[in-house]
Amino acid sequence: MTESGQQWLRQDDQEATRASFPELFFDLVFVFALIQLSETLAADFTFGIAAETLLFIFALWWVWIHTTWITNLLNTEITPVRLLLFAMMFLGIVLAITLPRAFTDMGLAFALAYSAMQIGRSLFALYAFRQAGDTASFMTLLRITVWLFLSSVLWIAGGLSEPRLRVILWIAALAIEYIGPVLRYWLPRLGPSPQETLDISGEHLAERCALFVIIALGETIITTGKNASGHLEIEATSLVLLCAFLSTVLMWWIYFHDGQERAADKAEETAEPQIIAQQLFTYGHLPIVAGIILTAVGEDFSLSHPEETGSYSHALALLGGPILFLGGTTLMKTMASRYVPYSHVTGIILLAACFLLVPFIANFLTQVLASTILLVVALWEYVALKRFRRAAA
Questions:
Q1: Which residue has the higher pLDDT, 304 or 351?
Q2: For the chain: N or C, fewer Cβ within 10 A?
Q3: How far is residue 259's CA from residue 348's CA, in Å, rounded to a whole number?
Q4: For this UniProt entry, which segments traverse the membrane (predicted)?
C-alpha cells in the first residue's frame, strides 16, 4: 500500500472498531425507511402486499449491509468517506419516499435511487482501494461492482415495466445480489474472488448490526406509540400497548442478553472473518430484522382492531413476526456457539401452534399469546444460562 493511500482505509486500532458518528448519522435514514415500510404494510395487509413488502425488506437490508461492509473497510473520519455517506443519505431519503408507491407510479424513481446507492458506493470503494494500492481487495470489489451493475439493469428495467413484470424483474435482481457472495462474485476469465481478501473487523460489523436491530426495535416503539395515541377510546388499548411494549423489550433481551456478544466474539476471534461475517451478519441478521418489522405491523393490527376475530393474514404478522425473529436468533446463536437454544425452538413451535386458535380468538388475545410465549423463551434462556455458568464455575 502507498503511504498516501493508507488514510483511505480503516486504521488498525481499538477506536476504529467502534461505530463512528458519520455511520450513526447515516443510519437515521433507515429509521424513516422502516417506518414507511411498516405503515405501508399495515395500511393494506394482504398476502400480495406482504410479499411485496418482503421484497422491500430484502432491498433495504442489502443496501444497508453493503454500505456497512464498505464503512468497515474504509476510514469514515476522512472527508471523502463522509461525503459518500451524506450522498447515500440523500438517496436513501428518496428511496424511502418512493417506497410506498414503488409498485404504482414511482417504480422508476425507486429503482434509480436504489441502483445509484449500490453502484455509487461500489465505484467509490474501487477508487479508494486503488488509491491505497490494495490490489487483492480492489479485484474483489471490482467483481462485486460488476454483479451490482447487472442487477441494476434489472432494477431499472423493472421500474420501466408494468407492475406484474416489475415484480419478476426485481425478484431476479435481488436473487443476483443475494447469490453473489455465495458464488464469491464469479466472473468469466477472472473466476471467483479468493477467500478472505477483505480486511474485515468482525467486532465492528457485530456492533453495526446490533445498532440496526436497535433501529428496528425503535421503529416498533415509534409506530406502536403513534397508533396507541390514536385509539385511546378503545378499552383494550392499554392491555395491547403493554403487551406490545413487553414484546419489544423481550426481543431486545433475547437478542442482546447472550447472542449478540457471542456473535461479536465469534466474528473477531475466527481465522475466517469474511466467511463468518457473511454467515452471521450479511445473511444471519435478515430474518431477525424482518421479524421485528413484521411484529410491529402485527401490533398495529391489535391496536386498531383489538376485538376483531383474527384472520390468518393478521396472524401472519402477529405470530409470524416473532417466529421469524426467534428463527433468526436461533441461527445466530447456534452458528456463534454451536449451542442450540432449545428455548427458542420451543417458542417457535408454540407460536406456530397458536395459528390453530386464530379463527376463534380476537386480535388482542393473539397479541397476548405472542407476548407470553416470548416471555417464556426469555425466562427459560435466562435460567438455563445462569445454571450453565454456575456449573462451569
A1: 351
A2: C
A3: 17
A4: 49-71, 83-103, 109-129, 141-161, 167-187, 237-256, 280-298, 310-327, 339-362, 368-385
Quick one: which of 358, 303, 349, 353 has its CA closest to 330? 349
- Do residues 161 and 171 lie in contact, with contact meaning Cβ atoms separated by under 8 Å? no
Beta partners for 143?
Answer: none
Secondary structure (H, E, C), the chain: CCCCCHHHECCCCCHHHCCCHHHHHHHHHHHHHHHHHHHHHHHCCCHHHHHHHHHHHHHHHHHHHHHHHHHHHECCCCHHHHHHHHHHHHHHHHHHHHHHHCCCCCHHHHHHHHHHHHHHHHHHHHHHHHHHCCHHHHHHHHHHHHHHHHHHHHHHHHHCCCHHHHHHHHHHHHHHHHHCCCCCCCECCCECCCCCCCCCCHHHHHHHHHHHHHHHHHHHHHHHHHHHHCCCCCCCHHHHHHHHHHHHHHHHHHHHHHHHHHHHHHHHHCCCHHHHHHHHHHHCCHHHHHHHHHHHHHHHHHHHCCCCECCHHHHHHHCHHHHHHHHHHHHHHHHHHCCCCHHHHHHHHHHHHHHHHHHHCEHHHHHHHHHHHHHHHHHHHHHHHHHHHHHHC
Q: Is-contact 30 92, C-beta < 8 A?
A: yes
Comparing CA positions, the residue from 327, 317, 362, 331 lying closest to residue 347 is 327
What tens digit of pLDDT does each residue of 280-301 get? 899 999 999 999 999 988 888 8
Question: Do 130 and 164 meet the contact criterion of CB atoms below 8 Å apart?
Answer: no
Q: At what angle do helices 286-304 and 320-337 cross, to 10 degrees?
A: 160
Predicted confidence (pLDDT) per residue in 199-215, tens digit: 888 888 889 999 999 99
pLDDT in the model for residue 386: 83
**Cell for 96?**
424511502
Which residues share a beta bridge with 9?
A: 74
* Residue range 102-117, pLDDT digits in tens: 998 999 999 999 999 9
